[in-house]
Amino acid sequence: MYNDAAFGFAFPTQFRHRHPGLGQHTARDSMCLAAAVAPWKPKGKRGLRRGITGYLGTLIMADAFQDREKAFEAKFKHDQELEFRARARRNKLLGLWAAETMGMAGGGAVAYARQVVAVDLEEHGDADVIKKVLADLANHDVEMTEGRLQIKLEKMMDIARQQIMTESSQ
Predict the structure, then answer these.
(1) What residue segments make up the domains of the chain, in order of their start?
(2) What is the pLDDT of residue 156?
(3) Residue 11 main-chain phi, psi, to 5 deg
(4) Does domain 69-169 have CATH number 1.10.10.10?
(5) Which residues in the chain land under pLDDT 70?
(6) Distance (Å, whole) CA 15 – CA 17
(7) Longest C-alpha distance within the chain, in Å?
């Protein structure tokens, strides 16, 4: 049972102070809740205010942490999308460069670049892209090593990131 004199301890089942006929909680319910969750036993009205403030401060902090977590998740998602777009752009640039090196022009070069982008989507990592481009370059009698192609891939990644960042800032 709720003790008005102590006003410092109440069980959650005792928060049943309602307006007659309206079915709404009163301010007394909030005070009981604040008194129950406060880390100290409030004394008088001043202590009760501290209890409510402490409880509301805890709620506000929880909301702040949830907002921060959502912001981090949104940033991570955005960064992953940008990284995916940069990798696709890098592969397209590499495909266009390889097509030009092999002597392709126009629609053939664009089609080859699309093939290189599609190859990267099949497996994780750059090994599949390097393997395809090396094999195609070898078929067209173009001399290229895996190390040189890896360096070219890294340069294309820098260019792709710059292009993506420029596009996203506009």
Answers:
(1) 12-64, 69-169
(2) 94
(3) -90, 150
(4) no
(5) 1-60
(6) 6
(7) 95
